[in-house]
Write a structure and sequence with these properties.
Layout lengths: L5 E7 L7 H11 L4 E7 L5 H11 L3 E4 L4 H5 L4 E2 L1 H6 L4 E4 L5 E4 L2 H12 L10 E4 L3 H12 L5 E4 L3 H11 L3 E4 L13 E4 L23 E4 L8 H8 L4 E2 L2 H16 L7 H8 L3
Parallel strand pairs: 1-2, 1-3, 4-6, 7-8, 7-10, 8-9, 10-11, 11-12
Antiparallel strand pairs: 3-5, 5-6
């Protein structure tokens, strides 16, 4: 591997905002590897062409981000069982024989970000409330259930979307109306926002935290800005908080290992490199 130039990248539409190149190229330099990680803006109607082209271009694989995660799964030769349960892939590995293997490291990244923020965190410490019912919510809910969560409260603006997830994931997932979002926090140990509310350029998440125990961990999948209005409000009332950057950094580690053969570390220097991009 040492003398072979390895290429990977991230496909999305749009994709210019992605911090993945900063992360992976930092690791390539840190470990003295020959390689590069780039941005691939791929329009939805060209996704199949782009994925089929990975092998022809000699890429080791790529990350897949919004809006391609679900469609990309259909184009894989082999889908990892966890990715199949999540209904999406975020990492493609091209085998030496040229087969496309699809993985999903989002759940791993999310759980590790919680442990990094709160080393004694446990999924069975109490109910979890998850806002949203899209791909990120799916990864989070499945990961929590796999770790032993006994109650996940799913709260989404469109109730039917949340209900569809609950029907699939079983009795531990309870659906609440969006109008009940503040009341549903009364005894939770973890609050997770997977919606885009609070993201740069989007409206703030409208939720009252009065009923949330101050011991609850509050987590946001958003990392632009690093502290969303939700996380700021939680921090000011004494809750431990974790932003989406930890999930982004941690989901990148197994992908990097699959392509470059090294399991990279998340160092203060990497954090600094990311912070300079904001």
């Amino acid at each position: 591997m040492a003398n072979q130039f390895v290429m990977a990248g991230v496909m999305g539409w749009p994709v210019a905002h992605s911090r993945s190149p900063t992360i992976h190229n930092h690791w390539i330099r840190q470990y003295g590897l020959q390689g590069a990680y780039g941005l691939f803006p791929v329009q939805p109607d060209r996704l199949e062409d782009a994925i089929r082209g990975l092998k022809a271009l000699g890429l080791a694989g790529c990350n897949v981000t919004i809006p391609h995660k679900v469609e990309a799964m259909k184009l894989m030769d082999v889908v990892d069982p966890l990715a199949r349960r999540m209904g999406a892939v975020n990492t493609i590995v091209v085998t030496p024989e040229g087969a496309l293997h699809g993985f999903n490291t989002d759940g791993f990244g999310y759980l590790q970000s919680l442990r990094d923020a709160k080393p004694d965190w446990a999924a069975n410490a109490g109910p979890a409330a998850v806002l949203g019912a899209g791909g990120a919510a799916r990864a989070v809910v499945l990961s929590l259930l796999d770790q032993g969560a006994t109650e996940v409260r799913l709260i989404n603006r469109t109730r039917s979307k949340a209900q569809a997830l609950a029907d699939e994931f079983g009795a531990a997932v309870a659906v609440y109306d969006w109008s009940e979002r503040s009341e549903a926090l009364s005894d939770v140990a973890l609050l997770v926002n997977t919606t885009n509310q609070g993201m740069h350029g989007q409206p703030d998440l409208d939720i009252a935290l009065d009923r949330l125990p101050t011991t609850a961990l509050v987590s946001d999948a958003i990392y632009i800005p690093l502290e969303t209005p939700l996380l700021q409000a939680a921090r000011l009332r004494g809750n431990p908080t974790v932003n989406g950057l930890g999930m982004l950094l941690n989901q990148a580690r197994p992908a990097f290992q699959a392509w470059f053969g090294v399991l990279p570390e998340i160092t203060p220097a990497l954090h600094q490199a990311i912070l300079k991009t904001f």
